[in-house]
């Protein structure tokens, strides 16, 4: 494919992959979806996006594949599955990639690109994707949008490319998403961006899973709100120890932003109620270990991690 007409593959077409894939396909990009459990529903009924901003959105027909053997190689690959499935999906990414392809890792947590990099061929470029987006999978082929529409792209690693620099690749990706209606920007420091997102993810995902509750309760109840704020400030301590001094009023700003949403159920909530493995290593273990190496302990986050490990261990045996 040429730079002006890239072929895009969606690997992991849940809420995140479905949302971005919907926008790209609707905008006329050549998008290909590798599907498993949702293959029949999306092939038959199309991909559906619902929410206040998308009240008039119609289902769209997309190119679907049940097997990687049938899917064409792609110039861009969007990895929307959980980090817990990377070992299984990395060989699929390698087979789905055109020469010099760019893989965008749309996952939560710290160091996810470092881990994924070791599983990918050195010929592929790896880009981190920070999704500032509240969506969830409402039904097979149906994505419910709650709030936000932002994607931050940062280059991680890849081969030296005489045709394009890392910044040029980021600009190409940003232009592609902006053309589809996503508010995308490039970022210079991927690690800083991952710590920044952890300020929201660590409390809201973990507490939502433990209480089996959405953001309305977590921000509305004074006890749960205090717990969320405590965890947020502890993430700030870890980030500061690692060289990222975020503003002290950032937690309250995030609380206020979240209270402006309709009730939202974070991804780890669904992991618990559907008995799926949680992304505990990337979202809790890695920040705890990284902060500890910088001389900073995170006791409240460590306690949260231990509680979630108990829940996770019992859930996956059901």
UniProtKB/TrEMBL annotation:
Ketopantoate reductase N-terminal domain mapped to chain residues: 8-157
Gene3D superfamilies linked: N-(1-d-carboxylethyl)-l-norvaline Dehydrogenase, domain 2, NAD(P)-binding Rossmann-like Domain
Recorded GO MF terms: 2-dehydropantoate 2-reductase activity
Catalytic reactions of this protein: (R)-pantoate + NADP(+) = 2-dehydropantoate + NADPH + H(+)
Entry EC no(s): 1.1.1.169
Keywords, comma-separated and alphabetical: NADP, Oxidoreductase, Pantothenate biosynthesis
Main EC class the enzyme belongs to: oxidoreductase
Pathway where it operates: Cofactor biosynthesis; (R)-pantothenate biosynthesis; (R)-pantoate from 3-methyl-2-oxobutanoate: step 2/2
Domain Ketopantoate reductase C-terminal: from-to ranges: 189-310
InterPro entries in alphabetical order: 6-PGluconate_DH-like_C_sf, 6PGD_dom2, ApbA, KPA_reductase, KPR-Related, KPR_N, NAD(P)-bd_dom_sf
Function: Catalyzes the NADPH-dependent reduction of ketopantoate into pantoic acid.
Family affiliation: Belongs to the ketopantoate reductase family.
Name of the molecule in the record: 2-dehydropantoate 2-reductase
């Amino acid at each position: 494919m040429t730079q002006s007409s890239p072929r895009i593959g969606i690997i992991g077409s849940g809420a995140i992959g479905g949302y971005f894939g919907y926008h790209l396909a609707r905008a006329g990009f050549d998008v290909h979806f590798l599907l498993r459990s949702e293959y029949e529903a999306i092939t038959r009924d199309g991909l559906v996006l619902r929410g206040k901003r998308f009240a008039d959105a119609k289902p769209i027909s997309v190119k679907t594949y049940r097997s990687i053997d049938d899917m064409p190689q792609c110039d861009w690959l969007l990895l929307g599955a959980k980090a817990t499935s990377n070992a299984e999906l990395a060989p699929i990414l390698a087979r789905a990639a055109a020469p010099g392809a760019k893989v965008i890792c749309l996952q939560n947590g710290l160091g996810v690109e470092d881990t994924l990099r070791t599983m990918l061929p050195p010929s592929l470029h790896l880009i981190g994707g920070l999704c500032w987006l509240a969506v969830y999978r409402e039904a097979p082929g149906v994505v419910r949008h709650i709030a936000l529409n932002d994607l931050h792209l940062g280059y991680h690693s890849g081969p030296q490319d005489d045709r394009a620099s890392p910044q040029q690749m980021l600009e190409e990706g940003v232009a592609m998403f902006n053309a589809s209606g996503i508010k995308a920007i490039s970022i210079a420091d991927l690690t800083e961006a991952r710590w920044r997102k952890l300020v929201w993810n660590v409390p809201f995902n973990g507490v939502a899973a433990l209480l089996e509750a959405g953001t309305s309760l977590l921000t509305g109840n004074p006890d749960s709100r205090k717990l969320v704020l405590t965890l947020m400030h502890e993430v700030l301590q870890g980030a500061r120890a690692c060289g990222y001094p975020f503003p002290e009023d950032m937690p309250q700003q995030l609380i206020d932003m979240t209270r402006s949403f309709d009730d939202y159920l974070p991804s780890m909530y669904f992991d618990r109620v559907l008995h799926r493995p949680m992304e505990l290593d990337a979202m809790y273990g890695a920040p705890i270990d990284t902060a500890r190496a910088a001389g900073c302990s995170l006791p409240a986050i460590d306690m949260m991690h231990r509680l979630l490990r108990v829940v996770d261990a019992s859930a996956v045996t059901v």
